[in-house]
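Box 3.1 A note on notation
Throughout this textbook, protein chains are presented in two layers. The first layer is the amino acid sequence; the second is a token string describing backbone geometry. Keep the layers aligned when reading.
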Amino acid sequence: MSSPSVYLSASSQENNLGIDGVSEEARMNVLVRDVGSILTSRGITVYYNDPDWSLSKIVSDSNSKKPDLHIAVHTNAGGGTGTETWCYGISGSNSAAFGSKLQAALVGTLELRDRGIKDSSVPGFRWAEVVNTNATSVLTELFFHDNSEDIERYNQRYQRVVASMADIISEWFNLSTPNRVQILAGGVNIDAVIIDNRSYAPVRQLAEALGHTVDWIESTRTVVVR
């Protein structure tokens, strides 16, 4: 029996800069690879788009890979706030069923305005990665990158967003997910997971909560805690 598979398609909009100067492409590519790393560890086959590909190339590549899920991951702009997910219809399709679960998970994690699921099958909103891919497909816009409060919330809860996305995809495939807890360190609640009766939490968050600094040495690919 083949393993379930998902195509994680990060935004390729390198010129779409957030108010903090970070491009949508850069931000979402980091996210999908962190989510994908967790999914791979759970036995899920993960495919990624290339940021330099055209939209038609991404759609073609996804269809050639034949994943069970295709998730396009973006941020929004236009002076608003909140999270929305575009699906093939808003009911009666696997896209709408999965999109509703993903939307609820992201809203519950980020606690930004719930902009709901939206129908990408209607004229004028036919997002290619939803209507032209053969897999069960959605396009999610996590927050508004021209809203500093949205960006701050995303940055603060980044690890929770990663875990939330990984868990909702795993649950869609009926795979078990780890128990999640919080560890109190230096007066800060840090999200952690329990695996084999041991608690695991992000090193950077733990170290910084305890008053340390964490540096990444690119040349040796080493994390240094001071």
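Helices lie at 24-41, 55-65, 94-110, 128-131, 148-156, 158-172, 203-209. The mean pLDDT is 87.
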